[in-house]
Amino acid sequence: MDFDQILAFRLARSGLTVRDARGLAEAAACPASDFARDAALLALAARVEDLSREAYSQAVDAGDLVVAHIVRGAIHALAPGDLALYGRALIARDEDELAAQLGRQVQRLAAEKGFAPSEALEEVATATKDALAKGRRLDKNELHQQLRDRVRADVMPWCQNCGSHHVAPMLWRYATVKAGVRLDSERRYIIAKLGRAPAASEAVRRFLGFYGPATPGGFADWAGLARTHAARLWDEVAGDLVEVEVGKATGWLLREDLGALESPPAAEGIRLLPPGDPYLQTPNRPLLASDPELRKRLFRPVASPGAVLKDGRLTGLWRVKAKGKTAEITVEALRRLPRGDLEKEAQRVAELRGAAEAAVAVA
Fold it and tell me: CA-CA distance, 62 to 184, in Å (whole number)?
């Protein structure tokens, strides 16, 4: 299977072939990372017509769009009906698999202090629900303070950056997942309305719908699961999959998606995708930027630039810096870009970030 064809399929499934009037929940069918300022807002605005900052905030506050810690313990914007699937359903039940999911710091603390990861997760999740009971809304610092009063010292290592003891990061993040917590537009934690969680293997189907053809290892990395956990969920849907050649390797795809992979729609227009956009996630990176040096510049451990797409192809990198009421957007062009279309898209980004205008510099 041709790499360009795979990317075109994934681009379409990511909702980037055309910007239209779909709702925010539909646009967030593939969860959008919100680790950086306005990342999810900009990602959804690349897919939805006439999205404003106010409309986004209103949807988040009303719960029409959910912002929460889910896969990998990271904050994403997603459809309300998917919170249980990408959150609670994917929490490992096996002790070793849960330890892998919670990370090395929790594994080390568990070994040193003699507690089981599942025991600690239950304790912190219960404390989180208690702290947020009766409709309380707490920012991260306020939540940490409430947890300090409710959980044992063994799960609260010293944090050099914060200058205090607080619950180990991956432990408190997954505790919010287990407790069924979301964030409001002011980044305060509140209890969400959770529906019944579907079978966790549904997450494999969703992953393949967005990032197929793929492998169990790719799913494990994307979902933040132990390899054994991911493989078990994969096996539950194996009967619905077909093998697809991906270069010299083999991937798997939902059988029902084979026609869509063979004839993906064409994309139009320019998009300024923020760092962490669903289309810029790990499964797509080797195909988007086959040159290792370009890939290093685009996908950095911290402070990554965004990606410029023209008609679905990577054509540049971009960064933004606020200067008064102006958003200064610097573009490193990899191919020729139409100035007028680029400036129009930059103005959209500027307004979403609360700036009056955009100043575009192309290198």
Answer: 8
> Is 213 in contact with 252 (CB distance < 8 Å)?
yes
How far is CA 227 from each of CA 88, 101, 161, 218, rounded to the nearest angstrom? 18, 10, 31, 10
pLDDT of 211-257, one tens digit each? 999 999 999 999 999 999 999 999 999 999 999 998 888 999 999 99
CA 3 to chain centre: 23
In Å, what is the CA distance from 107 to each residue of 69, 156, 157, 221, 223?
Answer: 20, 13, 13, 18, 19
Where exactly are the structural domains of the chain? 88-191, 270-362
Amino acid 195: pLDDT: 78
Instruction: For residue 3, count other CB atoms closer than 10 A to its CB.
Output: 13
> What's the one-letter identity of residue 304?
S
Nearest to 208 by CA among 144, 153, 263, 253: 253
Residue 333: burial class (beta carbons within 10 Å; 0-12, 13-18, 19+): middle
Nearby residues of 39 by Cβ (< 8 Å), 6 or more positions away = 32, 33, 274, 275, 276, 277
